[in-house]
C-alpha cells in the first residue's frame, strides 16, 4: 500500500481560515465601501452631547440659585413675582398666616400646693422659670380657702381652662376634678413633707411669719396673746394646749382626696380616694426632705417648664437666682405671669 504523503505545515502552525465578511454596499475599503461601526454603549443613549451640556448648565444654574437663596435669606424678588404670576396658591404657601403654635405636652399643669411644704420656694423658682421658658404662670391671691362649693369649683375650673397655654396654675386648694364639669383634666404635681415637720413649721409660722420678714403672722393671729405667741412648743405639747393636742396630721390628705365632704373626715375612705387620685391624675408627688431629687425629676419629666431648675436652686446668689426673685414681681412681670385668678 502506498503511504499518503504528509502535508507540510508552516512554522506558524495550523490555523483555520477566517470566514470572509462581506463588505457593505459599495465594496470594501479599497473599493469605496465602509465597514459598519457599532455605536458605543452609554447610560443615556438617547442624549446627544448637546443634551448633556444643556443638563449640566441647568444643574449649575440651580446650584447658583440655591446659593443665592441661602446667602440672601430668601429667594430673589423676581422669583416671588413669578410664583405670584403662576398661581396664588403657591404664593400663599410662603406668605399666608403663620402656622398654629405647637404646644408641648402636657400644656396644662396644676400645682395645688400643700401649705408649709416648701411651696414658697417652688413658687419663686416658677417665677424665674416662667420668664426664662415663656410659659404662662397663673397664680391666685386667695391663700386660705382650700374647700370650695360646687359653684366655686365650676368658676375656678372655667377660669383656669381659659388661660393661655402652656400654663401652670398654682394655689392652696384641694384636688379639683376638671372632667366632672366637662373640662380637660390637667396634669397635677405636688410636694409633701413629714406631717410632724409640717406641724412644727406651721407652729412657728403662725407666730412669727416666714423668712421674708413679713408681718402676716399679725394678720393671721391678731388675737394671739404675747405669752401664747412665745409659748415653748415643748410646753404646748406636754400640757396639752388645744393647738398641740390636735396637730392636724390629716391636713395633707384632702389635697389629694378632693372636694367631697368625706375627704375632710379622717378615715380609710379619704385615704383610699387620695391614693386613687394620685395614681390617676398626679405626674409627681415629691417629698420636701428630698427637694433636690424632686427638682431633678421635674426637670426630666417637664423640661419645657422646669429646665435648669436645679441649677437655679443651687445658686441662689446669682443675678437671676432665688434671692433676686424674693421681691414681689413688678406690674410688667405680673402681666407676663398671667395675672391672678380668684
Automatic annotation (TrEMBL):
InterPro entries per the UniProt record, alphabetical: Heparan_SO4_2-O-STrfase (IPR007734), P-loop_NTPase (IPR027417), Sulfotransferase (IPR005331)
Keyword Cell inner membrane carried by entry: no
GO CC aspect terms: Golgi membrane
Subcellular location per the Swiss-Prot or TrEMBL entry: Golgi apparatus membrane
Membrane topology, record value: Single-pass type II membrane protein
GO MF: sulfotransferase activity
Record-linked Pfam families: Sulfotransfer_2
Signal sequence interval, chain numbering: none
TM stretches of this protein: 52-71
Source domain of life: Eukaryota
Entry protein name: Uronyl 2-sulfotransferase
Organism: Mauremys mutica
Lineage, top ranks: Eukaryota, Metazoa, Chordata, Craniata, Vertebrata
Amino acid at each position: 500500500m502506498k503511504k499518503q504523503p504528509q502535508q507540510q505545515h508552516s512554522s506558524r502552525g495550523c490555523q483555520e481560515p477566517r470566514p470572509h465578511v462581506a463588505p457593505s454596499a459599495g465594496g470594501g475599503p479599497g473599493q469605496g465601501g465602509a465597514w459598519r461601526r457599532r455605536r458605543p454603549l452609554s447610560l443615556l443613549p438617547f442624549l446627544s452631547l448637546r443634551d448633556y451640556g444643556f443638563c449640566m448648565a441647568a444643574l449649575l444654574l440651580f446650584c447658583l440659585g440655591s446659593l443665592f437663596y441661602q446667602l440672601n435669606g430668601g429667594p430673589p424678588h423676581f422669583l416671588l413675582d413669578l410664583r405670584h404670576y403662576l398661581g396664588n396658591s403657591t404664593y400663599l404657601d410662603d406668605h399666608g398666616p403663620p402656622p398654629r403654635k405647637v404646644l408641648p405636652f402636657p400644656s396644662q399643669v396644676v400645682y395645688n400646693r400643700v401649705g408649709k411644704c416648701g411651696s414658697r420656694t417652688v413658687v419663686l423658682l416658677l417665677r424665674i422659670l416662667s420668664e426664662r421658658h415663656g410659659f404662662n404662670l397663673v397664680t391666685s391671691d386667695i391663700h386660705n380657702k382650700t374647700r370650695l362649693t360646687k359653684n366655686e369649683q365650676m368658676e375656678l375650673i372655667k377660669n383656669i381652662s381659659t388661660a393661655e397655654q402652656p400654663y401652670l396654675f398654682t394655689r392652696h386648694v384641694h384636688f379639683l376634678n376638671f372632667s366632672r364639669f366637662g373640662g380637660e383634666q390637667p396634669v397635677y404635681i405636688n410636694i409633701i413633707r413629714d406631717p410632724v415637720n409640717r406641724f412644727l413649721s406651721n407652729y412657728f409660722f403662725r407666730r412669727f411669719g416666714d423668712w421674708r420678714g413679713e408681718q402676716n403672722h399679725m394678720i393671721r393671729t391678731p388675737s394671739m396673746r404675747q405669752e401664747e405667741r412665745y409659748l415653748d412648743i415643748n410646753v404646748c405639747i406636754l400640757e396639752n394646749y388645744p393647738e398641740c393636742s390636735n396637730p392636724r396630721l390629716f391636713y395633707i390628705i384632702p389635697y389629694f382626696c378632693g372636694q367631697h365632704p368625706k375627704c375632710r373626715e379622717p378615715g380609710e375612705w379619704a385615704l383610699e380616694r387620695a391614693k386613687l387620685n394620685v395614681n390617676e391624675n398626679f405626674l409627681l408627688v415629691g417629698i420636701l426632705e428630698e427637694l433636690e431629687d424632686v427638682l431633678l425629676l421635674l426637670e426630666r419629666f417637664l423640661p419645657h417648664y422646669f429646665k435648669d431648675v436645679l441649677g437655679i436652686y443651687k445658686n441662689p446668689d446669682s443675678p437671676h437666682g432665688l434671692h433676686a426673685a424674693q421681691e414681689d414681681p413688678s406690674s410688667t412681670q405680673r402681666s407676663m405671669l398671667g395675672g391672678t385668678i380668684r
